[in-house]
Amino acid sequence: MAFSMFLRAPACTSRVFSQQIMRLATQQATKPVEAQRMLSSIMPLQTSFLKSDTTPILNAVRSFRTSPALLHEEKAHDHSKLWVIEKLTSAALVPLIPICLMIPNRIFDSVLAILITAHSFWGLEAIAVDYVRASIFGPIIPKIAIALVYLISIATLGGLFYLISNDVGLSNAIRQLWGVKSKQNA
């Protein structure tokens, strides 16, 4: 951790470090020529730390963060709230499905349609993001996969709302489907 902190804000760029190098060089070398030679061998090290922003390995270390305080600084990429919403949606589906089947109406059907579509969207999006990577498929195919996920989700929600508003409703459609299935088995 200390090493990564050192690489994020190198101490080698400070004025104190430069003064310490100068003092060390003058103490160690008895002759001005040796001091100059020692300084010339140390200064490239200091200038390489000054140019550390262009070094790819240091940028990789800088972007890797392990402390929780640093992880919560980035509000734009904080997915912990979304994870909680996904889990609440999944938990809400457990009692909502039997309630919708016992008491079919448009409000319960609409809530069920939204939650089912959201649950499916997050699952399909996770599959597209995890398995259709730009490093494997190039930059265009992952964007197409995400666009297809959005298209499928919009079509699903639209179809469910059409079924709710213009047909028998989502719960009654499921009940009728089960009724047909039970008649075929009898």
What does this structure look like?
Helix 2 runs antiparallel to helix 3 (32-50) and helix 6 (80-102) runs antiparallel to helix 7 (106-131). The chain contains ten helices and no strands. The protein is elongated and about 105 Å long. Mean pLDDT is 78; it is low at 1-7. It starts with a helix and ends with a helix. It has 186 residues and is mostly helical. Helices cover 79% and strands 0% of the residues.
Shape: elongated
DSSP summary, beta strand count: 0
- Portion of residues within helices: over 70%
**End-to-end distance, in Å?**
68 Å
- The radius of gyration computed from the alpha-carbon positions, rounded to a whole number of angstroms, is 31 Å
Mean pLDDT: 78
Could you spell the SSE succession in H and E letters?
HHHHHHHHHH
Strand content: under 5%
What is the SS-derived class? mainly alpha
Task: Describe the secondary structure blueprint for this structure.
Elements: H1 2-8, H2 15-28, H3 32-50, H4 56-63, H5 68-71, H6 80-102, H7 106-131, H8 134-137, H9 141-166, H10 170-185
Helix pairs in contact: 1-4, 2-3, 6-7, 7-9
